[in-house]
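Sample 1 of the test manifest.
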Amino acid sequence: MTKEYLISVITKDNVGIIANISGTIEKLKGNLGQLREHVLGGYLSMILLAEFPVKLEKEEIENQLGENFRKFSDEKFSLLVWPSKYNHISDNMDFTYGDNYILTACPKDRKGLVADISAFCSKHKLNILNLNTQTRNSVYNMIFILKASNSSPIKLIREELKLLEEKLGTKLMFQHYRIFKATNEIKI
Amino acid sequence: MLRPDLILDTIQMISQENLDVRAITMGIDLMDCKSDTVNKTCSNIIAKIKNYAKNLVHACDEVAEKYSIPVVNKRISVTPISHIGAGFDSKGFVELAIAMDTAAEIVGIDLIGGFSANVEKGISNADMALFESLPAALSKTKKVNSSINAGSTRYGINMDAVKILGHKIKEIANATSKEGGFGAAKFVVFCNQPGDNPFMAGAMHGLGEAEAVINCGVSGPGVIARAIERKIKEFDRNESFGIHGLAEEIKQASFRVTRCGELIGREIAKSLGIPFGVVDLSLAPTPKVGDSIGEIIKLLGVDVIGAPGSTAIIAILNDAVKKGGAFASQCVGGLSGAFIPVMEDAELASAAKDGTLSIEKLEAMTSVCSVGFDMIPVPGDIDAETISALIADELAIGMINSKTTAARIIPVPGKKAGEMVSFGGLFGESVVMPVKNAGKSSRLINFAGKIPAPIHSLKN
């Protein structure tokens, strides 16, 4: 019998961090599932799902991960270990399943852009699966991957996006994920 | 997961480069509509088209809405009508054309093709009745398109038919003289005509086809032109390059464009519950600025369209489009190449006006692209034999090179070379083009008979 945990780590980026964390999980006889890792502004952020033997307590996992990390690095280290209520360890993260859409905008950078668009998504029950933003030459590129399975009707979303375009003064593109997959990947 | 730069590339293609699906064409078999009277046959045709295509426009609009990619033209092609009307006289064939037009109007599509016959080896009584009906059929209908296959690599060219069709084209133009001879824009003569072409005027549902099928014509030249422009800018910044680098860029853009067509065509077919047929890779221009094959010719290195090198450029373009598209689609068919319809392409029409692009150069270019003399307005007083001879030249290119070629020539009643003619919308406008040495080919045409099939037809 196993129990699933969600583990989150933030620290200054360096070579060997993932090896350290995954090595500790292995020593604790854990099984690593999905893992997402990003480096932003020189800091690493990682979130993962792992299964551990039922008898292993949450505190023991925290202690072992913390101790092993401190042996490896002196950098500040934020660690969260949460028991996961749902079995997501082998969820299919292929965004082409179901009705997922990509919303993109490339406006001139200003305060509140993400807040405005994410409020729109929230209003229309568009769940943000992934958000990627970056500033280039004073242009703020935003790419939202959205789950639309329980959203407002797509026609209504497109109509209201036009109003949001006027408010933000920028073009908003709302396209089905399959278009991107079809035009960029070999397998359709 | 997709990289952000790839997502933004796709967005650019959709938002700035005229990406669309150019044509969704439903092919419908009409063989079981044939009855003992013209009236019953007409009713059967209307009922069958209604039955299969009643939801075609809605399905196209729904999928276009879902993907936010427009489906520009919704069309129908049917079994060549010479088979359906066999036994009827020319008046009966006119009624069949009107029935096709009525059905097209009822289901709300743009155009219907298949008022057609295959006379590559000989003319049957039914084919002749269809020939006789053409001026009335195309002047009394709005949406009906007609095509005749008058030659093939396997059987040669039927010069008896070519001779008659020269006269028929003049009659069709004269019957629609109030609209500048527009009827002739809905009529095309082929060599090696495919039975799964989604593009008009040559769309028809071939005899080897299924009961009903959805074929798809992909987006036009805008996406390709912008991709070439970007690549040339990249080259200007930091690299030396060869024309093969641009060919590669066209190939990749063609892959993406074809994938969109494949995705949307299949989804429409699925929602209608009928099989998906082919993607036609042809780059079909429109008179809209930025959607021109002529623009691509200039981008690829000649200052004016028609200058030496223009034929080589069309060869590069046609080949790269096929290479990219063939890999992107499960089943490629139709014409699949590059169209150079003078009136429908603003840059080509402009080159015709400036005199840099002649009919002779267009003929050379058609030897390496997918169609032929397309949407070429010629003086209204041109003799029928010269029109037949232009058709014969074009069909000969197709016959010898084992490829499809066609001629859609419009003798504009009352107009001379250099005068403007406009059909509006997607049919565009152009000056009437001069035909050199007109009136000098009648002896050839009056020999009639057949041009024998080439030696490479003997493949067995």
